[in-house]
Amino acid sequence: MTQTPVLLVLLLALASAAYYFGCKRAFRVADGRIRNLHSLPGYYGLYVALWAALPALLVLGVWLALQGSMITRMVVASLPEPIQQLGPDRLNLVINDIRNLVSGNIVSGEPDAPTLAAAEYYRSLLGTSRGLLFVVVLSVAGLGGWFGYSKIRPQHRARNGVERIVNGVLIACSTVAILTTVGIVLSVLFESIRFFQAVPITEFLFGLEWSPQIALRADQAGSSGAFGAVPLFAGTLLITLIAMTVAVPIGLMSAIYLSEYASAHVRAIAKPLLEVLAGIPTVVYGFFAALTVAPFIRDSGSILGLDVASESALAAGLVMGMMIIPFVSSLSDDVINSVPQSLRDGAYGMGATSSETIRRVIFPAALPGIVGAVLLAVSRAIGETMIVVMAAGLASNLTANPLEAVTTVTVQIVTLLVGDQEFDSPKTLAAFALGLVLFIVTLALNFVALYIVRKYREQYD
Amino acid sequence: MSTQGQAMAFKLDAEPVDTQKPTVGRDVRETVGEVRVADPRVRCTDVNVHYGDKHAIKNISLDVGKGEVLAMIGPSGCGKSTFLRCLNRMNDTVRECRVTGEILLDGEDINASHIDVVPLRARVAMVFQKPNPFPKSIYENVAFGPRIHGLCNSKSDLDVVVESSLRKANLWDEVKDRLDDVGTGLSGGQQQRLCIARAIAIEPEVILMDEPCSALDPISTAKVEQLIEELRQQFSIVIVTHSMQQAARVSQRTAYFHMGDLIEVSETDRLFIKPRHQLTEDYITGRFG
Amino acid sequence: MTNPTKASTEGASSFARVQAGMARRRAAERRFKLLGRAAVGIGLLFLAVLLTSIVSRGYTAFWQTEMRLDVVLVADEIDPEGTRLVDTLHKADYSALIKQSLRDMFPEVSSRRDRFALYGLVSNGAAFDLRDRVMADPSLIGTTVSLWVPADDDVDMLMKGHIDREGPEADRRIKDTTLGWIDQLEADGRLALRFNTAFFTKGDSRDPELAGIRGALMGTIFTLVVTLALSFPLGVAAAVYLEEFAPKNRWTDLIEVNINNLAAVPSIVFGLLGLAVFINVFGLPRSAPLLGGLVLTLMTLPTIIIASRAALKSVPPSIRDAALGIGASPMQATLFHVIPLALPGMLTGTIIGMAQALGETAPLLMIGMVAFIADVPQGVFDPATALPVQIYLWADSPERAFVERTSAAIMVLLAFLALMNLVAVLLRKRFERRW
Ligand SMILES: Nc1ncnc2c1ncn2[C@@H]1O[C@H](COP(=O)(O)OP(=O)(O)O)[C@@H](O)[C@H]1O
Ligand SMILES: [Mg+2]
Predict the structure, then answer these.
(1) C37 falls within a domain
(2) pTM
(3) I need a surface site. Which of B69, B79, B218, C174 has the fewest CB within 10 A?
(4) What is an example of a GO molecular function annotated in this UniProt entry (chain C) (predicted)?
(5) B-chain residues near C17 (CB < 8 A)
(6) pLDDT tens per residue, range C144-177
(7) Domain total for chain A?
(8) Are the Cβ atoms of C355 and A286 closer than 8 angstroms?
(9) What is the ipTM score, two decimals?
């Protein structure tokens, strides 16, 4: 892996050289008079340098991305028949061992002969690949540079060429966001489809029992675990509901108070302080929920004679609500402030009190925007992970009682994927199916919310 | 623009009569004319308004009579709106605005510490330059005031008030079949009459109108002016206007403001035909403004 | 207003009704305002409780109970042949020397069980400290050295008052005999709370008294460096294209909607993406900061793009027109005139994005940055964890001493976040322009 930086430095050097020679040649073809040139000499240099660097970088990137899987495939093909016949799970373990041997890590147990041979083969392939990469990248750079160099004429529109290339690079950067979405969709979709081949989609969506752990013992007759996700959906919903019950009234009322009542002085202090709540990492909230809030709720419950689970939905929901308060309040603040002053004047001008103006004029006028804000907050709560992982626990109860423990979609994704796992077991794939549901639901919520908010803004612009 | 067309017409009408020269020069800023009336609804004495450091209204004394329409004219930025907003303490909503002086409504100082702005504004209601109906149904817009002030005990009472207010605002026939449509869906002129209906539904004593027709087309303007004429029977009306023709058509008395000073108050006919102050003359003959 | 004189009798009655309702309405107004105040108050209260609970639990972690031992460095034990070879010195049984020194202090302890409890007073790390000391200065062999070594976490908790001395012995992690020794050590001035350097210089450990945040901190720094190196150029380039050059068509609309939605996708989904694509398809090393950086880049990119676009938007068109008017190409106008003016805004957005990435945990769990890693990572390919993940791991540990360390790690994390936000605020203040 150390060769990549070396290559990059070499490429940089090559590009600088290309720049230098490009400039020089531009001077030469112009007989030393810059006004003979279409563009400034620097652009000719840049043109050559870009031709030298970009194609080479592209080759380098593609090569590095594919190298690993290509080599693995070749090594697997070289393994003795019986090993190749192993199931995908066992084969993965073998490959892991080989990789570990190659990188010099400790392997589980004494490696056997075929593994050692394969590791040797792996290492030699890697060496070949690296050597080849060096040669190929540098020659591509040289060729590109020579091509750019040969194009230099006084009439050559170097600036336009450079600008076209830069524009292309900018476009490529802006498509990263699209690629990310595509990547997300493809990765969760493919694994989910594989999951739904093992577990029917109806059972997943409507089944009432969730106990994926059983699936670990795959050899047990007829037991493939239970993958009914309804308890997870219900748990997520319950915690989200509790969080919203906390966050919406408090967030909304504080936004109203700060924008309609508070003096400039109070607002200047209270608003940033509230926003601090939004900047605190969720893992901190998780710790707080598990260590401070949950015991507090359990103790207060037992004083009242209530039986509260130590990982109650209430604790997780309450703390999640806390986290979302500033989210709701700053969104509502924007919304409330975009209600035109003329409406306030209209109400005040007829003798409405502040609260009447707010409740009967501003609030109804701002309602669509507030609904959008709340939907965004809901999507935030549904996707929130650390608080529930640390405070909500794993018990998949189908209950509406906030004092009991429930589990959520995100908790299960984390539990199923953290730690060693074989990549193809239904247990792992189930995490991706849950991820798909999570992605679709939050995407839909965001989409609707952003649409509502945009329409609302347009109304008053 | 329609106002310009009217301005032309007005000048043609006015020119033959407008022969006598004013008696007070431009450098004198004392109010000339009759600031007091016999039977005042509102009586202002030495009112000053500051926005921070800016002295926006300087020592103004002025009466609003019962059952009269008082027009306020003057170049923009001269403080007409500011003065109008003093009359129902709308300036309270502006953070750095400071009002001094005495403003009596029916003999009582509205700036006194024990006065509550809410009932005050129920007596002195305001209609704004840009029509600002609430994003609610037409019915709810008119019912807003009676509801918040608790003026009606029953739904049928409220229906009566809404209907009579809309009738007084000359809007009933146009909207009676669609009272549940949103108020913002009406045309500009209808919206402004809706805002007036909204104001008269609370039965105020004085209605303040800040350039109520500046956003309206000529036909809507004519309707609102006719409405003002009718409303005068029941309410005192103070109207700020940019159009001298409008002032001439709807008001009994006119006050001319200039850079925070009240320059001249006269009966409307007199002010336009025979201004007593040079600044007034300059303004109404279009020498500036 | 006591004496309203009204023109119409109808009006008078309406005015009287307004007056009659005033008390009720003023009360409603007060209630409403109180509600608003309560909401703000509750929000601030939450913040205060959260911070106090963290600080009050965590501040003690910056001190650690240490014990002064007089260790006889018996030459025969350490280096019988007297070669002073590094290897020999490295392999010597230093813990035996430490045990000996403890026995010397409490000669009356004889039973196996009691001795075992006695050895438990000092941390397992004491032997390593002793080794380091001897290897740094082999001439010490044969002498008696007096050195401070970390005490066991239970002793530490007792000294900090987290263990109730009065409770029934059976429920206590420290029994009565041990209590006696500790009291005696304390009376001899051999136990003291000293600044906990290990917390900042060491990697993770199963023993709370030896666990530090250095490894996690380095992991976080490597991860953030990768994130910054990728997300800043990518984000700015994307923003520049979308704001300055992109034609208005379906495709750019799609990118726009897509970015806005991506900004609200739960972070854990990015972890799934990292797992499925970067690890399983591209074969990048699990647990490496490089991988974490890639995932966090994708996650923070929308934030940076949105902020950078806002910064570009706030540069007035007159600047562009001026540049174009003197014959610059649109690309030149953007690169040399618009971007420099928008840069502070872009940097602010980037810092906020980095702060987001700094606190992020969930996606890192998905890509294996959650393993127990005692070594401090040396580069972006080494297995590592990150500060928030370390917090998550420690929060799960049962030892009481980890609670204060978790809180202390949180304090460090919050300090970094505060610093970053402060920089962003200052940057914004410094370059805030009214055009
Ligand atoms: N909210 C305010 N803050 C500061 N100055 C103001 C404010 N409103 C009005 N002014 C100033 O007060 C003066 C009078 O304004 P205004 O009463 O609106 O004039 P008019 O309505 O006659 O056009 C103007 O110079 C204006 O700049
Ligand atoms: Mg005005």
Answers:
(1) no
(2) 0.86
(3) B218
(4) phosphate transmembrane transporter activity
(5) 149-151
(6) 888 888 888 888 888 888 887 787 877 777 878 8
(7) 2
(8) no
(9) 0.90
